[in-house]
């Protein structure tokens, strides 16, 4: 295959790309779209993270080949994230494309494994795909989200007071029920609660493994982590319904709480709602994770959100 690039260069300086690359320089948007429509394969080299170019390439009929990160990039091991207040782990250059588009439009492989890379390129050369644009990136999909946000959120009403974690009973009885065909808990239909959006009918309370974030725990169940639900699971009732053995329950400012330690029988609830985090993890604790379902092609909305 011919290899093309769009690397900017100044006329008095030669472009810093190999001679076998046909470099077009910086292209206007319309010409870039035309080039993408002629292309078969769009390769990402690991940066920038989550940029729009791969989505544009897929929408113009390209297959996107990107690197998988071993281990995932985070503030613990990568300079780009170092010092930034996040525990998020990035599994590839474009996690959205990896998780919600996938094959045949997106292939995520270990670029350090030459055999795996070679096999992926050969598969791409044999594969024919049609241009694909996820519904959430269409004008209609965007308007659907805006409509849902405006229709169901009221920013003129004060936020519901954050309940103290140390009160013995937040609701009469337990508001949680065991979900059918699942190890998780759901919100009981007859349990009272403050108004919530997304609706509590979408809540699925799962428990992570040690060293696993809620992002990973929810993905494992085919769900997404929903930060808005942390308020409803940060309580003793959730721990009790999960039959967690706690020698004591403490409220602390810790970005992995609510969570519990199986070995030490320690249970912790979140003291500061600003520290609720889907991305946090600890090798000591198993986390309580507020997951929800989502609409295919519209990840931002649950199935009952419209």
UniProtKB/TrEMBL annotation:
Topological category with respect to the lipid bilayer: Single-pass type II membrane protein
Pathway linked to the protein: Protein modification; protein glycosylation
Biological process per Gene Ontology, one example term: protein N-linked glycosylation
GO molecular function: alpha-1,6-mannosylglycoprotein 6-beta-N-acetylglucosaminyltransferase activity
Record-listed E.C. numbers: 2.4.1.155
Family as reported in the entry's similarity comment: Belongs to the glycosyltransferase 18 family.
Stated name of the protein: alpha-1,6-mannosyl-glycoprotein 6-beta-N-acetylglucosaminyltransferase
